[in-house]
Design brief:
By secondary structure, this protein is of the alpha/beta class. It is about 35% helix and about 25% strand.
């Protein structure tokens, strides 16, 4: 279900085999995520879950940072970009195996470079403006439809609840991390640094397990980073996992009757913590 003037069904396939069912699903996930960023951005999706999301001053910077988030999982993934693909970016992308790439446009030489990957599907979607503001899911006997949650609404409700306040750089990364978490299935924990994900854990029934996975993916890059949890923290266990890895600021919905325990723990650990009052809760 898409707006008639946008979406993957309206994209032009410039190169490659016909799209499969899973290609459509993954391309849509990557497209909807990349459209949430105003800066040059890249989103890499694998099996309908993002494994790398990044922004940068230039498209090549965003691509390199997104790939570095989890290069192993990115193998055979789907890439969405929100700027015209230049030759420099295409040359780097051609060194890796991806199933599909979607972007608003391509330089002529960039397109020729990407076509050297014969199994790659290349899509162009010039009208890269997000107009469809609903999420829909088919269940037996019907379709569920809900409004999307624009990030601007979430930012307005934010509240710093700890003695330690996030720095301006941390605040920017917290905004980015929570925006990235919007596209990771709950429970989701995203670790980010310098406008890029460095560890993603999601689609798990335990928020602690999601944090452990995100920390494992991030490795040493978690040190000095920030994190976003789409689940509130009824106990400080998730916070301890992140803080032990070196995370210095955390954003989460808040709203648990045990919020006080997490706030006290964050104060003892010297971690800045922000409540949003809202939850993405992507399933």
């Amino acid at each position: 279900m898409t707006h008639p003037a946008e979406g993957i069904p309206k994209a032009e396939v410039l190169w490659g085999k016909p799209l499969s069912f899973n290609n459509f699903v993954d391309l849509d996930s990557a497209l909807m995520a990349v459209l949430d960023f105003k800066e040059p951005a890249c989103v890499i999706v694998k099996h309908n879950s993002p494994c790398g999301i990044a922004v940068g001053k230039k498209l090549i910077d965003a691509y390199e940072a997104a790939l570095a988030s989890d290069p192993l999982s990115a193998f055979g993934g789907i890439v969405a970009l929100n700027r015209k693909v230049d030759e420099e970016t295409a040359e780097l992308m051609s060194k890796h195996f991806f199933e599909c790439i979607v972007a608003p446009e391509y330089d002529e030489q960039a397109l020729e470079t990407l076509k050297k990957r014969k199994n790659l599907r290349i899509l162009r979607l010039p009208e890269f403006v997000r107009k469809w503001r609903y999420n829909a899911k088919i269940i037996a006997g019907g379709i569920l439809v809900q409004n999307d949650d624009p990030e601007e609404e979430l930012i307005g409700a934010w509240q710093v609840v700890t003695d330690t306040k996030p720095t301006e750089t941390q605040r920017e990364d917290l905004i980015f991390a929570m925006k990235a978490a919007k596209f990771v299935k709950s429970n989701s924990v995203v670790i980010a640094k310098n406008g890029a994900t460095v560890g993603i854990g999601g689609g798990l029934p335990s928020r602690v397990d999601a944090a452990i996975l995100a920390v494992r993916k991030a490795g040493d890059r978690a040190n000095g980073a920030v994190a976003a949890s789409d689940a509130f923290l009824p106990f400080p266990d998730t916070l301890y996992v992140l803080a032990q890895a070196g995370v210095k600021a955390l954003i989460q919905p808040g709203g648990s009757r045990n919020d006080k325990l997490s706030i006290e723990a964050a104060n003892k650990l010297g971690v800045a913590m922000v409540f949003t009052g809202r939850r993405h809760f992507r399933h």
